[in-house]
Request: fold
Amino acid sequence: MAVNTTPEAPLPVGEVSRLIGGWIDRLGAVWVEGQITQLSRRPGAGVVFLTLRDPSYDISVGVTCYRQVFDAVADVVSEGARVVVLAKPEWYAPRGQLSLRAAEIRPVGVGELLARLEQLKKALAREGLFAAERKKPLPFLPQLIGLVCGRASAAERDVLENARHRWPAVRFEVRNVAVQGVHAVPQVVQAVKELDAIDDVDVIIVARGGGSVEDLLPFSDEQLIRTVAQCRTPVVSAIGHEPDNPLLDQVADLRASTPTDAAKKVVPDVGEEYERVRLLRDRARRCVAALVEREERGLAHALARPSIEDPHRMIDVRADQVEDLLDRGRRCLRHQLDRADSELTHTHARVVALSPAATLKRGYAVLQKADGHAVRDPGEVEAGEALRARVSEGEFSVRVDT
Reply:
């Protein structure tokens, strides 16, 4: 239960320490898993001191046990080993220090570790962290490569030498970290985060040489896997050799079998690229030459056509045809005009021959009454009626006598 205190009635340090000890005593014995980072076995001492560390969260706690408890596993347990401890938490009030009193220590076997890794792998896969659609493509020619590896390690040398041999201008941002042991996970996670925060870094390589299953456990740590999954920069896993397969290989955007293979996959070979450029240039030259040759043949064929070879020939031929048509048109028109003139002359002659004027010229006269009507019948006139006689050269008045 919570303790009620006020600024006027605070608890002494000793009382606080006593209360904490009481709460911890009620916890009872628990099974704890961790990695041994420090081991102290003093000759003749009846107590063994060790430090148990959680590599994922960078938390450590001291453990004490009687020598006979540790001697039972002394042959298979050493610094760096993963163990499961049955221990009771203890609070050392004078120093305010928490420790574990171990009653039993059990080493974590390889089979058990692999089984746990398989369970973790399935859990992360269900979250989609290993899905292919999450993989980011690598740049064709990275300008700055981030490298996470052990200090002065063979992995660092393999990556740097092979990459610079393939492309001498490539640059690296190297982070040297612990690649095994209790400090590996936090250091690798921190290095990956630092490189991912640099805008100029185009790709990150996490490299380590081969090792035992226990040595490669940091690269299957859940914290590291989630950190890589959240990176915006493509990550290449180059852990161990071909048979090794930590979970980092599953979440990385590209898996390389070795650090040397990572350099080959990330950095293009300048000689190969020169050769590819030469082949493409030759191919382009052949394509252009074939295109020009084809167009030249087409142009020659077009120039050989009569219309292109002698452009005025068609005009001349058409001009002669036009002249012939003009002559033919003139002749036809002249013939039509002559025939029409002849017909007009004949028609005019007939009209003239049949006209009243021609009749009058032959001595005939037309008698008209006062109202202008021509007299056609003697019964149409009366005696003494005045008429007008129209002849070829004029007209005059006449009077009916009887």
Notes: The mean pLDDT is 86. The radius of gyration is 61 Å. The chain is about 40% helix and 20% strand. The first strand starts at residue 30 and ends at 40.
